[in-house]
Amino acid sequence: MGCGDQSLYLTRQLFRTTDIPTASAGGMQEAQSVRPLFDSYVGLTVVKSQADFARDRLLQVRSIADLERTSQETTDVKIFAANAADPSSWELSLKRAVFRPSVKGEAIEECTIKTQTWLLALDTLYHFQPSRDRLFKCAYQDMQASIMAFDLLLSDQATPWERFVLRLMCLVAGIPYGNFVTKKGYQRNLTQAGYESNLIEMRDISEHVFPGIANFLRKQDAELSKYGMTIGRFKGAAKAFDWWAQTGVVRGVIIVARRSENPGAE
Question: Record's superkingdom (predicted)?
């Protein structure tokens, strides 16, 4: 979730339209109503200062919208500082916000309206220690959620040398090398968590990601060099993105894993 940019966009700038029946002189007609994209939103970041900053930003935007009376936002928004990779460490208030059926035996009234729960993870899952597995199982079993994510995968054609270099990069960056799996390996992890293979979609968008990021960082470094400054540690990141773009050893992939509407029939 970071410092709240993602949360602001999802809860303040995305909307949906719904058709509602209205009475008129000519009979019943359909009118469109604009609603927030999400009825509720729970954001997590492992860094407490980022969670505090994100809450402040959301409150500031809400205050301005209230003053201008233009609010079309998701009103049920909760931000937590927690380790998303370890759901067992979550505090009770977070579990209550996330889990639908019950928390520690406390029954929650069944909702008669059909709803969908989604776990969104943008450019974060490959950092999870020791792996993504605990969150995937929690998403399927406890959240009863579908998953949509942008994640980094290992190319099927990666050579032993490229794998070795990638392992060194992971060691320097503090990323578990085991998180870099192929598409088949990733799909296997999702199916082991409970998701059906025919409800899993993957789209490789590497060509739209790594070259652009590498080029952007190089331009930023060139601009800062005019003033005797650099982008610092991001120089290494630029080289990594450039290497990924040239070799294709790491793939940037959009993943969607839908939870079956009839899990009992699986």
Answer: Eukaryota
